[in-house]
Model the fold of this input.
Amino acid sequence: MTDKKEHYGIFTAITMIVGIVIGSGIFFKSDDVLKSTGGNIMLGVLVLCIGAFSIIFGSLTLTELSIRTKRSGGFVGYYEEFISNKVASGFGWFQTFVYYPTLTAVVSWVAGIYTCSLFGIEQTLETQILLGFVFMVFFYAVNILSVKLGGYFQNISTIIKLVPLIGIAVFGVFFGQAHPEIPEGITLAMKSNVGIGWLAALAPIAFSYDGWIIATSITNEVKKPEKNMPLALIIGPLIVLGVYLLYFLGITNMLGTEYIMSTGNESVNKAGELLLGENGGKILLICIIISILGVVNGVTLGSLRMPQALASKKMLPNSDKIAKIHPTYGLSLGSCLISFIVSVAWLVIHYFTQKANLLGGGDISEIAIVFSYICYTLLYVKVIKMKNENIIKSVFKGIICPIFGLMGSAIILIGGIVSNPMYVTLFILFCLLVSMIGYLFYKSKNERA
Done:
């Protein structure tokens, strides 16, 4: 008898990857990519391909670890099994106190931006943040009070999110027309030669592709994981890349690069009008908002479980209390409270960074994602060592994939630093500090021989 539950086939594995990765990023990062590339569409396409390259080889490499462990906690479990408990605790602190809450804060804020567009509310940062807070509270409540309801919303939003992407892609690519005029009162953003500055586009692209790491956590529940997961982790990202490329080419062909760079996130509204008529903008915005709220829901779902996962491994103060699962809700209420407070704190920090324009058009979550890629390099190197020790037999899986994964992480790190050298470097050091606190906490509390 075995406790292993292999109930997912390859199709489910692929759709899960596609559903996790395709979220809000591509809708509100296309203008950032164009600004970073100086309006050069081909450079934008190159950036999209580099992002896919990074996740395909990164995920293929990490599959070699996921099929060799039963540890819980996703990536924390990988560090625990293959590196050390102290390093696992450090990475777990980063995920709990920086990665998940910054994503939750930023995506909630983006939902606020598009809600303002839908209802014609004045686009002030304060209003956007306030609406983001309302969405955040709502989805924390939904996921705490009803696990099933959160799951249903996730499934519905995954389907709906593809509608505007495919619609704009098809119309823009195959039914080109004259570009719309830039509205009065908006400063025209011209095409320019940015030199190596195009590397800055890798930061927003990393956001658009983020989420693929969650897919590796289902490896032990997939039928024939040694065969199906590598296939899913190639096919899934390629589908995402195809959808992103078609959308990017479609919207740039439909609106023109200068229109998108000048109007920013509002450009999607215009695409909806051209696609579906006078009310088309609102219809498209509704689909986009549902898609973005699906991301808020999904990230919240993961975030509120992270403190409990760490506490179950004795990686947090008061672990015994935080690890306790409430019999009614099936969750640790202490874990949910920690997650919510930290997410709200990051929403406030996000407000001040945007108000002062500290990140030059970027946001706090992009830097957290860049730091994640730095962390993955430890696991890539471990896979290479396992090949040298003959634990992994395949040269492709044990050498080629991790080397390409390392290259992808390096490119994204360089892109992040190029986007804003001073603040990105400081924030990366902050992420490292949080990780060090987690590392030292575990060392002091659990390794007193």
